[in-house]
Amino acid sequence: MVALLWSIGCGGPEEGTITETSSAPRMSSGGRFVALTPDTVRDARTGLEWTARDSDRDLGWHDADSYCRTLVHGGRTSWRLPEIRELENLSDEGATQQCGDQPCHLDAAIRLSGPYVWSATGSDAARRFYRDFQFGTSLQPHIGKIVRRVLCVR
Question: Considering the entire predicted model, what is its pTM?
Answer without folding.
Answer: 0.79
